[in-house]
Predict the 3D structure of the following.
Amino acid sequence: MNKTFYDIHCHAMNLSHPNLSAFINRIDINRLMRQLKLLTCLNGIPIVSSIVSFLLGRKLDAVKGKVNRVNNLLSVMENDLGSYFLLMENCLKQTGNCLEKSDAPLLREDGLHIGGNVYQKIVLTPLLMDFGCKDIRNPDIHYEKPNKPIAEQVTDVFSGIKKYKDMSVDNVFEIYPFLGLNTKNYTLDEIKELLDKYFADYRGKRDDLYANMGKFDGNINNMKSNFFAGIKVYPPLGFDPWPDPAEYDFMEQYEEEVKKVKYLYGYCSGRKIPITTHCSDGGFRVDENALDYTAPSRWEKVLREYPEIKLNFAHFGKQRGSWYKKLWRFFSAEELWVKTILRLVASYNNVYVDFSYSGVDDEYYSSLRELINNQPHILRGRILFGTDFMINLMAIESYNKYLDIFSKNSALSDPEKHGFSCINPEQFLFC
């Protein structure tokens, strides 16, 4: 029997897609200058000077490592997306460098080898991101408003899928993107039109999606239902899962935003269209309310009103934060995001989590083991495998290496690995 491996959380973007100027606009230049002045002053004190020099030396080594990772990421993002998918496929056939030289490739003639399982197909669900950021302004520069329409990203992604299908020898990938959507960037009528264009005849069937794979003719106006497998929302870019009236100057504006998100949820819930939401304190943060919008508690009202909605909390609510934020959470009543997610998973039948980006070492899988042991019957059926490739190149060398660590880790059993990368994703994606 043929089996399918799912990477439920990956990306397909080139350097023209991210709104880099909006991201840079969030950098606090004044804070950086204050830190630089402080270091300069401290460096003048003889005893402290040695300490500062030592710390700066270690910092420089860390910076060099980060520069290499950034260069690795940029070298991938400089590809057109057809070449990018081919690069991912070819990477899985390689050994050496990122893997032990004695190892056989993960992708062989009989399929992809993960743990004790072999898979003949790999489903990728690249998550498009709506980089519109219509409210971002920078009056200090002449060309102050970048335009990042999602339509251009859609065109590039589906052109890339067509190139991959036409040029790949193996055609091991089935590629079913999620549409990036920020309701703030559209009127209610535009949202209705957009959802009807791509999902009016959506049935949640893999065969429907496969029938359209590689059929893009270059004209976005000719696209229809069953090109996209779901919806991706990204709170750090300004998407608010459930608007709060206290955050709006005008009640009319608040009511309009509520209507838009309610229409989205009602539409997706009724058709069982899966939604993936970013849920970590990292990522591409440009909105000043990013952390409030990203918190999983923001979805509690959504789930109470739409209890059957299919929702995946990406990154499993990972919170890194600064040391003082961690200390605050330890001594306060503030609930860790992962605890909120576990409560929602236990309360609603269609709430899932993925651990994309986190699985860059064995240590993470040991911590995941502890979570599973505390809630085994429910959580085992809701965890989804994801890589966050290409973004995870900031923490790991290659697509191959991420899958290899998942394959070899001893914290998870082979049946669990199969559940997370095959059984659970099929439940999440397809009706």
In short: The longest strand covers residues 4-10. Residues 4-429 form a domain with the TIM Barrel fold (CATH 3.20.20.140). The mean pLDDT is 87.
